[in-house]
Structure to design on (784 residues):
C-alpha cells in the first residue's frame, strides 16, 4: 500500500465516515425511540416511560452534537478531498445534497424546541407532536444522503460526451436503481442499532443490580423494538442482495467469492481464501442458497466475478465484512426474539444473566455491523468513485497536505470520541433514574 | 432574473444570515469565557446559555447550507476552492467541531467547566478568522494554476495586508454584533446588570469595527484595484448607508434607548456592507477563475435547486418563526422563568 495523496484521501474519508456513522446512526434511530417512549408514557399516564424519553433525549443531545460537527466535516471534506468528483456531483446530484440540508435544518429547529419545552405546553400531546418533525427530519436526511451514495453505485440521469455532462436529469439521478434498497436498509438498520444500544444500556443497568421497575420497562420496550426492527432489517438485506445480483453483480460476487457464472450457486459463509489460486477453504457452504438469495429461485443465474475485468474488481476481503454484518444481524434477531418469547411465559424469567449479557453485547455488535456493512458497500464498488464513470484516483485532490490533515483529524476524533463517552457516563452516573423519578413525579402511583 | 443571479443572491443571503447568527454565537462564547475569568459569569452567562442552547445547531446549518448550495449552483467552486482550501478549510472544520461539541459537553453534560468554556470562547474568535480566508482568496492572487493543478500560495496569504485586515474585521465585527444583540436580549430579560456589562462591550467594540472596515477598503485598493473601483463608483451608496446605520446603532446604545432598533440597525449596517461588497465583486466568484455566468450549473439542476429552495423556505420560515417566538420573543423564557 503506497501512501500517496489518493490513498491518504481515502483513509481520511474512511476515518471521518466511520466516526460520523456511529453518531449518524443513533441520530436517525433514537428520535423514533424517544417518540415511542413519550407516546406510551402519555397514553398510559406512566411516568416511567416519560422519564425514559427525557433521559434518552438528554443523552441524545451529546450524540447529536458530535453527529452535527462530524457531518459538517464530511460535507466539507467531500469538496476538499475529492474536488473533481464534487465538480461532477454538483452538476448531477446537488439536488439531494441540498434537500438533505433542508431536512437537517428542519430537524435542528424542532430538536431545539423539543429539548427546551418539556413543561411549556398545557396539553401533553403538544410536546409529543414536536417529535414528528424531528423524526421526519432525521430520517429524511438519511434518505437524501443515501440517494447520493446510491448514485455513486449506480449512476444515471446524465450522459457523458467528450468529458462533458449533458442531458442531466436530477430526479432520475436521485431515484437510481440502488436508491430503494439502500434507503430501506440504511433506515431500518439505524432504527435497529439505536434500539439495540438503548437495550444494551438497560441490560447493563440490570446486570449491575439496578433492576428496578424503570430499567425493566426500558428493557422490555427496547428489546421488543430491536426485534421488530431486526426483522425489517433482514427483509431490507434480502432486497439489497437481489438488487446487487441485478445491478451490481461484481460487488455481490466479490462478497460471496463467487467466480463462475452459474445457476444453483452456493452461499459461502465464513471461510478463508487463497488469493493466488482462488481456492476457498474452511467455509460453510449452503448449496444453492445464493441463487435463491439473488432471485427467489434455485435456478437463478448468478453472475460471477470472472465476468468483471481484473482491474475493475473489488478486493476479496469484503467477504469478511459481509459475514460480520450478516451474522451479527442474525445474532441480534435471535437474542431479542428469545427475550420476547421467554418474557411472555409467566413462569420463566427473561431477566436471566446469560440473556442479559447477550442483549448487552447486541448494542455494540450492531454498531460493528453498521460499520462492516458500510465498508462492504463502499469498498465493494472499488476502484470506482462513480461506478463506470470515474475512478477514485481521478477524483482525489492534488494537494500535498493530505497527510497533515489526516493527522489533525485523527487527533480530533480521538478527543471527541473519548470526551463524548466520558460526558455521557458522567451525565447519568450523577443522576440515577429512581432519584430523578422521585423529583420529577413525586405524586406517582 | 437568471438562474445564476438567483443562485448567488440566495447563497449570499444565507451567508449573510450565517454572518449574523454565527457572530452572535461566536461572540457570546468569547464573552462568556471573558466573564468567567473576570468572575462576572453570574451576571451574563445564564442569559447567554438561555439564548444559545436551543439555537446553536440551527446556526451551524446556515453554514452547511451555504457550502452545499455553492457547490450545487457553481460546481467549479468545488474544484478551485476544494483544492486550495484543504488546510485552512480543515482547520476551520476542526475548530467548528471542537466548538460545537464542547458547547454540548459543557451545557448538557457537565456544567461549569472552565476548560470547556475556554475552548468554546477561543474557537469563537479563530473560526471567523479561518473562514474569512475563503473570502480573501476570492479576491485573487492567492492561487496559481500549474499544469492544470491548482496551487495555493499560502505564503502570499500570510504576508498580505489585505488578508490580515479581513481577519481583523471579522473578529471585531463578531464581537460588535454579538454584544449589541446580547444587550438587546438582556434588556428584554429585564436584567439590568447584564445589560450594563454587555452595553459596555458593544460600545467598546464599535470603534474597532469601523476602523477595520476602512482598513479593508484601503488594502483592497492595493490588492484588487478593479474590485475597489467598482465598489466606490457603483456601490458607494450602499457603504454610505451602512455607515449611517452604524451611526444610529451606536447612538441608540450610547443613550441607552431602543436596543431592539439598535440591533436592527447593526443588522442593516452589515447587510449593506456585505451586499455592497458582494455586488461589487461580481461577476467574479473567484477572481479570475470563476465567473458567475460561465460556471453556473446546468439549467435543469439550477431550476430544480430553485424549486427545492422555495419549497424549503416554505417549511423553514414558519419553523424559524416558531423557534424565535418560543426562545427570543417569549418574555418569560428570556427572563429565565420558563425552563
Amino acid at each position: 500500500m503506497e501512501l500517496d495523496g489518493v490513498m491518504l484521501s481515502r483513509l481520511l474519508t474512511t476515518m471521518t465516515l466511520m466516526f460520523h456513522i456511529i453518531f449518524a446512526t443513533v441520530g436517525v434511530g433514537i428520535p423514533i425511540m424517544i417518540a415511542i417512549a413519550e407516546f406510551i408514557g402519555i397514553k398510559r399516564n406512566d411516568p416511567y416511560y416519560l422519564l425514559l424519553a427525557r433521559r434518552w433525549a438528554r443523552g441524545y443531545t451529546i450524540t447529536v452534537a458530535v453527529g452535527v460537527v462530524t457531518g459538517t466535516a464530511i460535507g466539507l471534506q467531500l469538496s476538499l478531498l475529492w474536488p473533481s468528483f464534487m465538480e461532477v456531483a454538483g452538476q448531477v446530484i446537488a439536488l439531494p445534497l441540498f434537500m438533505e440540508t433542508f431536512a437537517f435544518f428542519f430537524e435542528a429547529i424542532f430538536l431545539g424546541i423539543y429539548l427546551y419545552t418539556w413543561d411549556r405546553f398545557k396539553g401533553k400531546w403538544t410536546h409529543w407532536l414536536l417529535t414528528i418533525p424531528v423524526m421526519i427530519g432525521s430520517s429524511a436526511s438519511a434518505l437524501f444522503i443515501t440517494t447520493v451514495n446510491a448514485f455513486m453505485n449506480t449512476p444515471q440521469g446524465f450522459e457523458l460526451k467528450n468529458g462533458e455532462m449533458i442531458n442531466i436529469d436530477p430526479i432520475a439521478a436521485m431515484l437510481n436503481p440502488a436508491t430503494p434498497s439502500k434507503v430501506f436498509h440504511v433506515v431500518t438498520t439505524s432504527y435497529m442499532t439505536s434500539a439495540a444500544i438503548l437495550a444494551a444500556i438497560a441490560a447493563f443497568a440490570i446486570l449491575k443490580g439496578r433492576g428496578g421497575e424503570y430499567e425493566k420497562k426500558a428493557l422490555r420496550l427496547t428489546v421488543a423494538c430491536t426485534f421488530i426492527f431486526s426483522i425489517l432489517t433482514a427483509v431490507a438485506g434480502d432486497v439489497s442482495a437481489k438488487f446487487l445480483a441485478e445491478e451490481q453483480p461484481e460487488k455481490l460476487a466479490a462478497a460471496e467469492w463467487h467466480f463462475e457464472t452459474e445457476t444453483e450457486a452456493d452461499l459461502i459463509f465464513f471461510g478463508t481464501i487463497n488469493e493466488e489460486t482462488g481456492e476457498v477453504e474452511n467455509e460453510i457452504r449452503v448449496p444453492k442458497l445464493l441463487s435463491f438469495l439473488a432471485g427467489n429461485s434455485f435456478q437463478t443465474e448468478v453472475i460471477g466475478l470472472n465476468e468483471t475485468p481484473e482491474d475493475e474488481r473489488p478486493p476479496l476481503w469484503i467477504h469478511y465484512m459481509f459475514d460480520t454484518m450478516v451474522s451479527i444481524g442474525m445474532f441480534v434477531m435471535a437474542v431479542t426474539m428469545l427475550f420476547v418469547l421467554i418474557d411472555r411465559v409467566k413462569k420463566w424469567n427473561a431477566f436471566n444473566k446469560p440473556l442479559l449479557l447477550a442483549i448487552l453485547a447486541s448494542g455494540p455488535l450492531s454498531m460493528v455491523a453498521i460499520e462492516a456493512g458500510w465498508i462492504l458497500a463502499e469498498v465493494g464498488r472499488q476502484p470506482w468513485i462513480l461506478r463506470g464513470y470515474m475512478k477514485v484516483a481521478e477524483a482525489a485532490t492534488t494537494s500535498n497536505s493530505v497527510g497533515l490533515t489526516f493527522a489533525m483529524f485523527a487527533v480530533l476524533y480521538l478527543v471527541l470520541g473519548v470526551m463524548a463517552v466520558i460526558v455521557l457516563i458522567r451525565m447519568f452516573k450523577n443522576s440515577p433514574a429512581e432519584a430523578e423519578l422521585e423529583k420529577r413525579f413525586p405524586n406517582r402511583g | 432574473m437568471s438562474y445564476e443571479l438567483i443562485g448567488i443572491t440566495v447563497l449570499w443571503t444565507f451567508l449573510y444570515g450565517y454572518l449574523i447568527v454565527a457572530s452572535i454565537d461566536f461572540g457570546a462564547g468569547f464573552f462568556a469565557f471573558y466573564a468567567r475569568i473576570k468572575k462576572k459569569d453570574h451576571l451574563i452567562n445564564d442569559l447567554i446559555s438561555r439564548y444559545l442552547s436551543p439555537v446553536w445547531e440551527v446556526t451551524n446549518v446556515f453554514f452547511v447550507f451555504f457550502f452545499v448550495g455553492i457547490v450545487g449552483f457553481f460546481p467549479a467552486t468545488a474544484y478551485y476552492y476544494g483544492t486550495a482550501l484543504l488546510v485552512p478549510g480543515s482547520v476551520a472544520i476542526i475548530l467548528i467541531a471542537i466548538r460545537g461539541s464542547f458547547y454540548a459537553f459543557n451545557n448538557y453534560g457537565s456544567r461549569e467547566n472552565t476548560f470547556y468554556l475556554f475552548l468554546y470562547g477561543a474557537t469563537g474568535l479563530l473560526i471567523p478568522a479561518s473562514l474569512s480566508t475563503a473570502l480573501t482568496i476570492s479576491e485573487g492572487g492567492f492561487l496559481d494554476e500549474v499544469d492544470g493543478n491548482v496551487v495555493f500560495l499560502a505564503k502570499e496569504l500570510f504576508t498580505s495586508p489585505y488578508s490580515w485586515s479581513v481577519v481583523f474585521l471579522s473578529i471585531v465585527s463578531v464581537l460588535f454584533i454579538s454584544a449589541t444583540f446580547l444587550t438587546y436580549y438582556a434588556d428584554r430579560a429585564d436584567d439590568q446588570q447584564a445589560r450594563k456589562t454587555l452595553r459596555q462591550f458593544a460600545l467598546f467594540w464599535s470603534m474597532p469595527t469601523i476602523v477595520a472596515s476602512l482598513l479593508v477598503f484601503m488594502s483592497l485598493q492595493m490588492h484588487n484595484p478593479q474590485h475597489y473601483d467598482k465598489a466606490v463608483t457603483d456601490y458607494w451608496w450602499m457603504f454610505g448607508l451602512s455607515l449611517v446605520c452604524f451611526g444610529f446603532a451606536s447612538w441608540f446604545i450610547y443613550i441607552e434607548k431602543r436596543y431592539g432598533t439598535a440591533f436592527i440597525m447593526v443588522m442593516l449596517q452589515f447587510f449593506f456592507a456585505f451586499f455592497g461588497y458582494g455586488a461589487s465583486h461580481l461577476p467574479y466568484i473567484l477572481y479570475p477563475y470563476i465567473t458567475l455566468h460561465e460556471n453556473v450549473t446546468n439549467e435543469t439542476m439550477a431550476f430544480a435547486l430553485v424549486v427545492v429552495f422555495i419549497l424549503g423556505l416554505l417549511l423553514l420560515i414558519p419553523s424559524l418563526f416558531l423557534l424565535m417566538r418560543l426562545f427570543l420573543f417569549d418574555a418569560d423564557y428570556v427572563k429565565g422563568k420558563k425552563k
